[in-house]
Structure formats: C-alpha cells, structure tokens
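Technical annex, item 7. During the second reporting period the consortium partners agreed on a shared format for inverse folding records so that results from different sites could be compared directly. Each record opens with the tokenized structure and is followed by the designed sequence. A conforming record, contributed by the partner at site C, is shown below for reference.
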C-alpha cells in the first residue's frame, strides 16, 4: 500500500449522451481534478478510465477513476480498483450527485446509508462495507412532480450552468482537502457557512 495514495471515484453513466447530465456531476468533478494536474484519463483493466495526479507538487497522490459501467453497476469497477491499487476503504473517496442537498452545495460524509442512490448502494454491496468517504454534490430536488429518475438524467439548466464551474471547483477543492487534512478537518471547512455568490 502506498501511504499517501487516495483513490477518487467519480460516478456517472458512460457515453457522450450522458456526459452533461446531473447524474454525471461526479465525473465532471474528476475532469476538473485531472485538468488541475494536467493528467489524462486512460483505459484501465478495472473497467474504468484512470488518471494519476497529485494535490500539489509534494502533496498526496490521487488516482482518479471513472467507471465505464452504468451508475447502478458501479460496485464492480470500484471493488476492482480498490483491490488493484491496494487502497484501504478510508482512503476511497466517491464523488456523486445528491438530490437531498441543494444545488451548488457540497457535503462530506463517511459511511451511513445510500439515501436511495443506486451507485452508492452498489458500491457498498460490492465492498461489503459503506465505510468510505463521499463527496456529495448537491443537485437539488426536481421541480413540481417531475420524477427524480428523469431529473437526474437531464442536463443542468441554463441558470445552473452559469454556476456549475464554481460548484465543480468547490467539490474538487473538497476532494483535495480530504486527502490533505483528513475528513473531520475537511468537514469543518467545507460545511462552514459561505458568502452568497
């Protein structure tokens, strides 16, 4: 096991048709992290696209992974990645969309239930444990009576897209902070009230 290595998995569905969906915001955050380190994603035998980077020149190493499976089948690739890179679960960070958090909000947690998120459900089942870090990227609830399943598979709206780069940056910052200082200290920073933007 590499002592400063973190595995960061961004959830979503494969293919260009899904790329801009709300459900794919986890993979968008990984693109932001890769861009910061000028890292490129390459096909990996774990059924994922993988890029390697660092938080800073001397900071922790990050293996960034986007499973090639559909969201509801994320567990297989994640379990294979954990095994391949020999990462303990406390150094696994899963970045995903969260209906129960307002849009443009990031929250951190470890363990607990899946909250109806089928990607998280499948990962916990495949790993035999829910005890991994989650970076929960708020997408908010659908308006009116729109079914949640339709809402998450739609692209962000025009007004949301104006704010989206800031949200992706905040979530990427949260990933880097967890890797640098640990979950508890990162929560104190990320969950602190912030000025409106």
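Designed sequence (site C submission):
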């Amino acid at each position: 096991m590499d002592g400063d290595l973190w595995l960061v998995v961004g959830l979503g569905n494969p293919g260009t048709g899904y790329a801009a969906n709300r459900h794919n915001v986890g993979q968008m955050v990984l693109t932001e992290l890769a861009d910061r380190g000028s890292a490129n994603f390459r096909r990996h035998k774990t059924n994922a696209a993988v890029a390697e980077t660092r938080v800073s020149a001397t900071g922790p190493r990050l293996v960034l992974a986007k499973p090639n499976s559909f969201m509801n089948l994320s567990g297989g690739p994640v379990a294979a990645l954990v095994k391949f890179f020999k990462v303990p679960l406390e150094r696994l960070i899963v970045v995903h969309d969260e209906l129960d958090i307002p849009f443009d909000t990031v929250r951190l947690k470890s363990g607990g239930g899946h909250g109806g998120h089928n990607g998280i459900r499948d990962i916990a089942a495949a790993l035999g444990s829910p005890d991994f870090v989650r970076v929960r990227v708020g997408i908010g609830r659908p308006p009116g009576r729109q079914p949640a399943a339709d809402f998450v598979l739609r692209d962000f709206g025009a007004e949301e897209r104006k704010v989206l780069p800031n949200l992706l940056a905040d979530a990427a910052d949260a990933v880097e902070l967890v890797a640098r200082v640990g979950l508890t200290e990162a929560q104190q920073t990320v969950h602190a009230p912030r000025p409106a933007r």
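DSSP finds six helices and seven strands in the chain. Residues 158-181 form the longest helix (24 residues). All partners now use this format for quarterly exchanges.
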